[in-house]
Amino acid sequence: xxxxxxxxxxxxxxxxxxxxxxxxxxxxxxxxxxxxxxxxxxxxxxxxxxxxxxxxxxxxxxxxxxxxxxxxxxxxxxxxxxxxxxxxxxxxxxxxxxxxxxxxxxxxxxxxxxxxxxxxxxxxxxxxxxxxxxxxxxxxxxxxxxxxxxxxxxxxxxxxxxxxxxxxxxxxxxxxxxxxxxxxxxxxxxxxxxxxxxxxxxxxxxxxxxxxxxxxxxxxxxxxxxxxxxxxxxxxxxxx
Length: 240
What we know:
CATH superfamily of the largest domain: Pseudouridine synthase I, catalytic domain, N-terminal subdomain
Oligomer: single chain
Number of domains: 3
Radius of gyration: 21 Å
Order of helices and strands: HHEEEEEHEEHEHEEEEHEEEH
CATH architecture of the largest domain: 2-Layer Sandwich
Largest sheet: 9 strands, mixed
Structural class: alpha+beta
Number of helices: 7
Mean pLDDT: 92
Distance between the termini: 34 Å
CATH topology of the largest domain: Alpha-Beta Plaits
């Protein structure tokens, strides 16, 4: 693998930044300063150091995105902008895809990756990975409706949802946080409709062990940290 690609896929530097860093002598491979950004490195055996920090290579790419309104959760779409359109061209060359879906008007945390096995496990019903959303609704949530949502409600089509967990901003409030363990199409919106209410705002703030990075503005992204990646793997292995 070329050094500049290695630095790009590890989220260290873009290819153009890698060239500048090489010229300034900031990159070492196996203890030697490199002279060109296109030198070949073995990700499994070579030690790459940038500004004194060893760069760890992982086989897969994991990205946290703060999804804005107006983007669909797909790899490509003939009519709509997709969440992958928010990533730089150098990353869009890889086989990345959104892990799970948020509808066009739902905001917040999205995991984008090329790790199909982990994605499958995270989304599998038996994994029971929790997802939390900040919501606003058209009407206040009564104690009766809260109990129904936390027990399970029948949504259109006759499906009985698994119990949710609600934290309201105040008693009877029309805003708060709802946590679910499944991901049916438009599930939270359909759950509120089952209680004769309507969701007016929905933002995912957590997905399994991941919490939306508050430093990310809408449309911004960052690579997951090694600790976050390990936490995801641990979360699915616990239930598989």
